[in-house]
Specification:
This protein is mainly β. It is built from 1 helix and 31 strands. The strands form 7 sheets. Strands 22, 25, 27, 28, 29 and 31 form a 6-stranded antiparallel beta sheet that branches. The N terminus is likely disordered. This is Carboxypeptidase regulatory-like domain-containing protein.
Length: 377
């Protein structure tokens, strides 16, 4: 059965359970009334509820829920209809995360008469990315043994209270392929994470911020963290087969320069290739060319499971490069970098270049993928 459909069925069943177990909101003629709860049935105070006049512009009626999660809006003497919506702001690790809530039943009610519109804070399956937290799933940088994402299962076990105040329950979920591999609609909080591939344990670690490489293990406990590309905090999980040999990390980080080419990055033959020429007004020895599969919202991140790189060993202002062992059918973005000051980080004065000075992507095999490197500001 379709995974999203299955999740929708379970979410609907849970909502039905809340409707039958919680105290029903009483209808009051001439008022829109309702109760707002989380998935455990606990009331949510201070939730903004908006009754949108469908026949008039900028004539909304707005209120907030009380300590018991109740609200009440007068529509007496208003011969129109209102579409009712609710949204809340979760406060998590210093972040303010706006979330729309789901109406339980009909959300459009008549004026004068009024009606009952209850809401629940639950996963929204009407959009691919949902309305709650995202868990990203990537292979670790430089991992040489490919993991079949289609056979990966994550177990996310809550540790302590979640952002909505609930204790939550363990989630056993498969990542889905969007712009990368994700588990969607996970309530923000701290989780113990484990993973398997086709039933066999994988090693996991929480992805660092570009300067931190955490230890691999059979599990880790981590929080959702605000990433560069994500509008909201995300829980970033890296996976690999146990005892997999890795190549040096290709990400620029303090204390060392980018790694040389290798089997997992691009140094070995096999698979389609991308090749071309680097040009600059200085010696390009030590320049690194990255082939990145765009991921995340807007494609501003890289799916590190497919990232390849090669380090230029020759000298000159015009040098050739070749990226081997690329994956067929994937769109790659090419970036070239020369660390001028040797600090192992991208900083002012370093040289950077994109293919054709653009942000476009190419699909291997490609020849004449020439890149001109220019100083950063």
């Amino acid at each position: 059965m379709n995974r999203i459909l299955t999740r929708s069925i379970f979410a609907s069943a849970l909502t039905l359970g809340l409707c039958t177990s919680a105290h029903a909101t009483q209808a009051v003629r001439g008022f829109i009334t309702g109760t707002v709860v989380n998935q455990a049935g606990a009331p949510l105070p201070n939730v903004e509820v908006v009754a949108d006049n469908t026949l008039g512009y900028n004539s909304n009626l707005i209120t907030r829920t009380d300590a018991q999660g109740h609200y009440k809006i007068s529509v007496n003497g208003m011969p129109t209809t209102f579409k009712v919506s609710a949204k809340t702001t979760l406060k998590y690790k210093g972040a303010q995360i706006p979330i729309s809530l789901s109406a339980k039943g009909q959300a459009v009610v008549p004026g004068n008469v009024g009606g009952v519109v209850d809401f629940v804070l639950k996963p929204d399956t009407s959009t691919p990315y949902g309305n709650l937290g995202l868990v990203t799933v990537q292979m670790g940088v430089g991992v040489s043994s490919l993991v079949d994402y289609n056979k990966v299962v994550l177990t996310l076990t809550p540790v302590g209270k979640l952002a909505d105040g609930s204790s939550g329950k363990p989630l056993v979920v498969r990542p889905v392929h969007l712009a990368g591999w994700f588990v969607v609609n996970v309530m923000y909080g701290t989780y113990k994470v484990t993973a398997t591939e086709n039933g066999q344990p994988l090693e996991v670690r929480q992805k660092g911020d570009g300067t931190i490489l955490r230890e691999w293990g059979s599990s880790f406990t981590g929080d959702f963290i605000k990433d560069m590309w994500a509008p909201n905090p995300a829980l970033n999980v890296e996976i690999r087969h146990p005892e997999t040999a890795t190549v040096p990390d290709a990400r620029p980080s303090a204390g060392g320069s980018a790694a040389s080419s290798s089997t997992a990055s691009s140094g070995s033959s096999g698979g389609p290739t991308i090749s071309g020429t680097l040009r600059a007004d200085t010696d390009l020895k030590g320049a690194v060319v990255f082939a990145c599969v765009p991921a995340g919202h807007g494609g501003e991140d890289c799916d590190e499971g497919f990232t390849r790189f090669v380090t230029v060993k020759g000298s000159g202002q015009q040098v050739s490069y070749i990226l081997n062992n690329l994956s067929p059918g994937l769109e790659y973005r090419l970036v070239a970098w020369l660390d001028q000051d040797g600090d192992g980080d991208v900083s002012d004065g370093d040289l950077l270049g994109l293919l054709n000075d653009s942000d476009g992507t190419v699909m291997a095999p490609v020849k004449n993928a020439d890149i001109t490197l220019k100083p950063t500001n």
